[in-house]
């Protein structure tokens, strides 16, 4: 599919004058009751509590951009026909607004876009008072919240068309678990730098033992070493391979909203990230995946491990599912923030994949 990327030289101006007003025109948001791992209710039980408003400790927030209302604007480059639904599953410390640009491209291609904000992130409920920290009681909360979100958004928007999932990093790990445990919810999935296993700096088995001990001593909600609180000053030297214009825009969103300043992991979160990894890589679960999948690996990634990504692909492929692996050699972890010369082929590949109705060979 041919489309124009947002010009990095005029990035903020285009976002402010064109993209944000268009998205505001077609925006809907709400809250859904979050899964409680202590109660262990099924997704079919907690999907009944969908609220037009009602933030709170036990709810997660979401935003939808409706393609029918977007098409009313007749934006240049818009396809003008409904293609289906794209659900976005964000990464660690992220929030819905970070995916404004990706939502724009999906809308231009004809998709309704629905973005979940996981518990402990954005405007969703939190189990910890410090807005800088991310803590979760169980990774299953994330997975079951994504499951009910997919069910609700499919019922509202998909009709007889495909449900596609775009998932980054932590959201990619959650998506992988979703596809194993709820294999019929998604038709096509893009896992972008997925957190099949986190990068902890030490072997995962050793890290797990340390984390278990720390949590047993009551340190589960304390910040792990090496993570830092939000810094209001934008450091242009910290963007690495990413687009400075995109990273400055994202930082501005964080600066404007205290709920977007989540920046550091707790012992409890890392413990659950490793537990999620162990679950994902169980061979019997990998073989349950049914959704056609496209997995992107960043060539320079300091946040997630590449080996477990490759192992996941091989185990899913061994189970007979269609899965394709793409490595982007000169890119860093957040592929959707890369300069246009990398972002263009990346987005094109995703849109072409979502537009397919047939499966591709698992040998690709």
TrEMBL record:
InterPro entries associated with the record: AB_hydrolase_fold (IPR029058), Hydrolase_4 (IPR022742), MAG_DAG_Lipase (IPR051044)
Domain Serine aminopeptidase S33: 81-336
Pfam families associated with the record: Hydrolase_4
Name this polypeptide is given: Lysophospholipase
Upper lineage: Bacteria, Bacillati, Actinomycetota, Actinomycetes, Bifidobacteriales
